[in-house]
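Deliverable D2.4 — example input (structure tokens):
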């Protein structure tokens, strides 16, 4: 947005801000709310882009302690840090603390998605989504994912000397997600959706001022177009059901429509299906592609970890007949690979911070958190706690050798709020890494490359790598 326009808005809102500042309740955490509406949003987003957000938070923790107030994305906000804070957030009574993303996310993803719901509504929607994402249901998709990963590598990796890993991982995960969530195969519609989702994600965490040419405005436009496409898909699936030409669980949308037919009390409306399809697409497409890219980066720099994964994956490959697809049991043998993936998530969580809305005045550690405020926390601030993860700055898959304390690792959430797509992410990650390490070795074109958050991690030049095919190993 034009800086002059921001300054003009601040001048208009300054009298209201000064009036309200004298009416703040006592007992609030330390810290500053800053300027009206904007608060610390621009400073925080700049730190995200510069990959200094952890230090941005740590500076304030050093100054105020693990509990402090600020203003983010138009809302007064309290930051909480630590394992006890995570437990408080994930187990707090749903009548007191409710899921709520910033206004920009809610406007773009909709109010009926699982991240915004609490109590009975959250349980109902979660139950509907789990009917598709639970392990027993996902078993049937292992072979299909395997085929899609093989096809992706053959088309976009084989015969190349260098590739940009992040864009290719985004293509792979989007293709898998669009097929299994929305039932959209390759073609013009999928190509359109790729661009729309990228535009939607860029403005999902932004100052929610809907002026033309702002990121937020462009994301809203993309959201509207995606919703029109999904509404058409729902009509198509409903017609296919009437004609009995649709498989019961061919994709998430069909599964949710079947649930409506079988159990009206658990059924989701069209609006709920659209909101949750968008949310799962964002979560599954972007977060898994980030995890795979950070894995590729780390394996290029850590030969010991690469060798451990390669040995495990070669043993799986050698147990398969030529061309035989992976199975659920094969994935269960990839324990070390998954520990490495979890360690990547510990050190580089794709989603930096999350939010809850305060429904009534709360007291935490002697401080008042007023009704209407929001609470935020950052996974990495707990993941780098030395009392929970010894030598936390060292990449060590052995951190996950034994059971970790509850609410200390929250890359997938915690308690009843743990991500229902956990198993989906595990399947996609393990299948992709299996084929990558069995088919290629690679090195980074720029070994010291880091990432920025915009709001998800992005790598300079898309993380360019030089790849060499493994010709001597039988590829299953």
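Example output (designed residues):
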């Amino acid at each position: 947005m034009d800086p002059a326009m921001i300054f003009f808005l601040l001048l208009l809102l300054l009298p209201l801000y000064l009036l309200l500042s004298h009416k703040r309740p006592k007992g609030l955490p330390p810290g500053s709310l800053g300027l009206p509406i904007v608060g610390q949003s621009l400073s925080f987003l700049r730190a995200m882009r510069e990959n200094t957000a952890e230090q941005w938070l740590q500076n304030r923790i050093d100054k105020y302690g693990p509990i402090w107030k600020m203003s983010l994305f138009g809302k007064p906000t309290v930051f909480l840090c630590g394992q006890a804070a995570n437990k408080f957030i994930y187990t707090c009574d749903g009548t007191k603390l409710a899921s709520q993303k910033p206004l920009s996310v809610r406007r773009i993803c909709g109010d009926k998605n699982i991240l915004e719901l609490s109590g009975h509504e959250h349980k109902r929607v979660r139950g509907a989504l789990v009917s598709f994402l639970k392990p027993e249901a996902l078993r049937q998709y292992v072979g299909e994912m395997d085929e899609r990963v093989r096809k992706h590598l053959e088309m976009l990796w084989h015969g190349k000397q260098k590739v940009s890993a992040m864009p290719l991982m985004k293509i792979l995960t989007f293709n898998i997600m669009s097929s299994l969530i929305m039932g959209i195969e390759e073609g013009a519609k999928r190509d359109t959706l790729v661009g729309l989702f990228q535009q939607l994600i860029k403005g999902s965490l932004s100052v929610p001022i809907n002026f033309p040419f702002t990121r937020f405005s462009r994301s809203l436009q993309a959201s509207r177009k995606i919703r029109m496409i999904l509404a058409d898909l729902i009509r198509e699936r409903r017609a296919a059901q009437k004609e009995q030409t649709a498989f019961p669980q061919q994709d998430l949308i069909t599964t949710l429509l079947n649930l409506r037919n079988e159990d009206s009390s658990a059924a989701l409306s069209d609006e709920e299906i659209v909101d949750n399809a968008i949310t799962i697409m964002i979560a599954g497409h972007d977060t898994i592609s980030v995890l795979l890219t950070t894995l590729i980066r780390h394996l290029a720099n850590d030969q010991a970890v690469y060798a451990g994964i390669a040995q495990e994956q070669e043993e799986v490959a050698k147990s398969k007949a030529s061309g035989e697809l992976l199975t659920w049991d094969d994935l269960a043998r990839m324990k070390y690979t998954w520990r490495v993936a979890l360690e990547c998530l510990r050190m580089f969580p794709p989603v930096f911070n999350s939010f809850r809305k305060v429904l009534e005045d709360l007291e935490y550690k002697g401080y008042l958190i007023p009704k209407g405020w929001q609470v935020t926390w950052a996974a990495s601030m707990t993941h780098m706690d030395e009392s929970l993860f010894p030598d936390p700055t060292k990449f060590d898959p052995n951190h996950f050798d034994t059971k970790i304390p509850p609410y200390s690792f929250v890359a997938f959430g915690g308690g009843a709020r743990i991500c229902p797509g956990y198993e989906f992410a595990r399947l996609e990650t393990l299948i992709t890494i299996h084929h990558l390490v069995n088919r290629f070795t690679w090195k980074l074109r720029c070994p010291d490359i880091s990432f920025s958050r915009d709001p998800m991690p992005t790598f300079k030049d898309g993380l360019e790598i030089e790849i060499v095919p493994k010709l001597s190993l039988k590829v299953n």
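The first helix runs from residue 3 to 21.
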